[in-house]
Design goal:
Layout: E1 5-13, E2 19-28, E3 33-37, H1 44-51, E4 59-64, E5 67-68, H2 73-78, E6 80-83, H3 95-105, H4 112-121, H5 137-149, E7 155-159, H6 167-182, E8 186-190, H7 194-200, E9 203-208, E10 211-217, H8 218-225, E11 227-234, E12 250-252, E13 258-264, H9 272-281, E14 286-293, H10 296-307
Parallel strand pairs: 3-8, 3-9, 6-7, 7-8
Antiparallel strand pairs: 1-2, 1-4, 4-5, 9-10, 11-13, 11-14, 12-13
Length: about 300
Amino acid sequence: MAPVISIRGLSKTYASGFRALADVDLDIRRSEILALLGPNGAGKTTLISIVCGIVTPTSGTVTVDGHDILRDYRAARAMIGLVPQELTTDAFETPRNALTFSRGLFGKPADPAHIEKVLRELSLWEKRDQRIMTLSGGMKRRLLIGKALAHEPRILFLDEPTAGVDVELRQDMWRLVRELRAGGVTIILTTHYIDEAEEMADRIGVINHGSLMLVEDKVELMRKLGRKQLTLQLQDRLAVVPPALARYPLELAKDGHELTYTYDAASSASGIPALLDDLDRAGIRIRDLQTSQSSLEEIFVSLVSERG
């Protein structure tokens, strides 16, 4: 199946000389949730802004369902909904009118039933005729999502959509995102909440210094880059790791009662059986043991620090 968005050799250098993007290649699949992770200034928002037609690229091409974003701007942009970071709304307008106006900007005929459906899904129907200036910050954030959905886009960009939003509202938003994806909408999100990406995304992209470092299926990324650790609780205190165990990557806790063995999660040969045999031969008795695997956050921090 052809990607819904195809990006080739995309670069952006601003007049100041700052290079925000450097030769980015990316295919985005239909009806997937793709999370873009990266530090502040990594190029995430620039990438989104170019695809959405807000920023002009220095070089490269972007097509949205076959429509070039420069040559066929209207058709490409009509497929996209954007939820920006900033809470930019008309303070004196009402939610219902704001969504109706947004829909009209894309040449869509009036559809009060659709506007009502979106406002209800976002728990804003009861506030439909109140001035936006009276809404809470969380409601304004939801309203931005509503405006992005007003013209029924097939692609939705969420740029830090839950920044400053309470936990309950975040859960409501992600429920809506799942429902949209189930309905065939492609979701691309940037987030600083790596736990959200770990929970929500089908694929993970990591951007740093304007370069796309990798794009992987989430499960495969964690399998390939995740480290596993075996923590061994010892019956007796150990002063130092015996020379006979020097070939293993073991770390002894300061109190001498715990050994940590780190190994490759993707490797079929963990070395654990041999380690346990050698511990027994060295007379080291184990009271308890447990395994753990590195989280997406740990993988992300490791990638950025290693290649930064």
